[in-house]
Amino acid sequence: MGFPFAKLSVGTAEDMPYPDEGFDVVSIAFGIGNFSEREQAIKELHRVLKPGGKLLILEFSKKPIAPGKIAWLYTRTVVPIIGKLTTGNEKAYEHLVSSIDAFPSPEELREEFEERGFRAKGLRWLFPRIAFILVLERTPLRV
Fold first, then answer.
1. Does residue 11 or residue 28 have the better pLDDT?
2. What does DSSP say about strands 49-60 and 118-126: parallel, antiparallel, or unpaired?
3. Residue 33 CA from chain centroid, whole number
4. What pLDDT was estimated at residue 88?
5. HSE on the CB side for 31, CA within 13 Å?
6. What is the model's pTM?
7. Taking CA atoms, which of 27, 58, 73, 129 is between 20 and 30 Å from 110?
8. Burial (CB count <10 Å: 0-12, 13-18, 19+), residue 78
9. Distance, CA of 57 to CA of 59 (rounded, Å)
10. How close are the terminal C-alpha atoms of the chain, in Å?
11. Is 3 helix (H, G, I), strand (E, B) or coil?
């Protein structure tokens, strides 16, 4: 099954094989923590987005509200065990937890992007604050 409107390519966020100002929208889901050089990746995101283009970021939150704390406890304790039993790789699931702990808050992330030529357009928490969507807009400023 193919998608004529989409082309798959391999690359890194720090060196994207796309033209300047080639995209209206870029989305990232649970990927910012995997950038090897976040500042360079942000510069690249700015480069490939058109002025006024939107950047949508979906990430985990480390500060859920009450019901989310139960889910977070599950993620911290049960998920690594299930990961070990099903894949034999408990460390990968422990890494998930530690990477969420080390990840910046939505406010810190917003500031990081605003310092590099983006403007925050919205923040939406996903129930019960386990994850969030940060919507940013590329400003004309070149970084």
1. 28
2. unpaired
3. 7
4. 87
5. 13
6. 0.82
7. 73
8. exposed
9. 6
10. 39
11. coil
